[in-house]
User: Fold this.
Amino acid sequence: MPIKNMSWIDINVWIKENINFLRDSVIDNIYGFKDSLVLRLRSRDGEKRLLLSKPGFYIFLSPETIFDKKDLSFEENFVLLLRRYVRDCKIRDVRQQPCERIVEIEILCRDSRYTLTIELIPRGVIVLRDENNKIKALNRSLKTKDRALKINSLYIYPPKNINIYCEKDLKKLIENFRKGYDLVRGLVVGLGLPPETAEEYIYRNKLDKNIDPKKMSGEEIIRLINDLRRFIDEIIQNPKPCVIYDQNKKASEYYVYQPSSKKDICITKESFNDVLKEYYVSKIRSFVEEDQMINEYIRLKDQLTQDLERISRELENMIKTKDLIDHNYHIFEKIFSCYKDLLKEKGEKISCPEKDEIECVYRVDRGRLKITCGEISFELDLLRDFRDNYIEISRKISQLERGIEKIKENINDLERKIMERKIELEKLRQISEIKRSREIEWFERFHWIITSEGFLAIGGRDIDQNEMLVRKYLEKEDLFFHADIHGGSVFILKKGSQAGERSIAETAHLAGCYSKAWSAGYGSIDVFYVKGEQVSKTPPSGEYLPKGSFMIYGEKRWVKNVKLLLGIGVEIIDDKYPRVIVGDPELIRSRAKIYAIISPGEESPKNVAEKIFEKWIEKHKELEIMLRSLDLEEIIKKIPGRSRVIFIS
Assistant:
């Protein structure tokens, strides 16, 4: 059974139930879990709970014990952006977009206000926007016919559907309700009632599901609408949450009310949040196996299959009708003519048979001749000629046959999409497994290289890391490298006093590339190096060393004319795990499975990284899964500044 998603009624009840905890709580920390967002909240009285949300599915509160910390993601761009903007900030309020499956969390952060919008609709997103409605963080970019969402664009709400609880215009509601081809569709599609709620209302009131909304009068529909509003009010104001368990004693269904048809098996719970927690926690670790898109395709396929069965039955009946008429054409034509004359000559005494020799029964109703011949029933329009009626039957047969072919095409198309999506999900599963399984070495938070002689060199990505490297990692037997220009990465060649010229040259190469010389557009730069014991953070008496500056004592040694060409490649660890490496082009060419070479230029690091990544995917399909397990941001961070691509393998 597909995983259930929360309805707009569920959201309404959940917010009212939990608003006291949520309001004024502090966002202690922010994590990712697969494609879910996890906020750790601390309430006014110090209680800590996790707020879990997944676009298109759920939002609920849970104890922290739901996860092992190793399961949570810390470094996804979306999570990092949220931490940057709203970590340690206070939730002012939580509200629902009226009658929509959209939750909005208003956040007060020092002098700024943000709104975290969680869309629980199909293909929904999670968006953080500022007071000017500008998107500051987004879990994924989105482009549909109705809206386009990306960082720094203005947020646009998804299109609204008419909803019985919020729409006041009765005329609109009546028109929309009549679009449904039966009562259930009229309530769900026309009036915005959640499907299970519509079923419950019909069951409680012993209504016929097959009622045609088009045949209901305006007064009947208005009475229905008013009664439905009372029914929804009762649910929202007096919820009775409950859970149904399967044979394995796991939550398989949940309701915000006690369903009449299942009241003996739906176990009542104290709070609706407890119901949500019990239902979703048992499934949350398998959400990768479920997929909203596949579920939607399956739903559409099931609906089309039902339509196909219905139309096929209609076609079968029409063909039987035509065959019956073909074999008894003159009998039907004669009796039809009699009833047609009877309709014209209202004052005359004309007697027409109610039954004929082939056991067909005839009855006139509002200008139509209704004919029943055993299991076959059909109607003929007495205002038209018999021949025209016959042609109309043939036309309907052709129309139904075309309709069936179209439905079959659509079903095949959906089956193709389901298969493609399953293949895509399997790729995502493999990508996730690679990401989860690869161990990140401690030095990978810095710029780094393993030289061709096997020595480790590490460099600072920024001024803070430069400081850290010297204070924490620089030892006497190490070598300290820096380009002969103000501004750039400090590099340390660990145990460099034992290294050969090749390792020294390869480390100097990185020190040159990750210096201001790259941004300045130099073709080459000199790099000096000294022993670790020659470097100090202690200034001469009476002087001050600003952050990122160091005192160098004694003689400097030089690597002259370091060419600013940087190799960026992907090496495969243990034939399983990809890792981005950088360095001298010759070293990268010998070590990487695929690589590119860049030099100072005019394109932004992001554009260069995307160009390289796309070309790698295009040229190396056999490595696609491994490549997609890489974080594009890591490639961007490896690019020293504005660049141009020289070569892509």
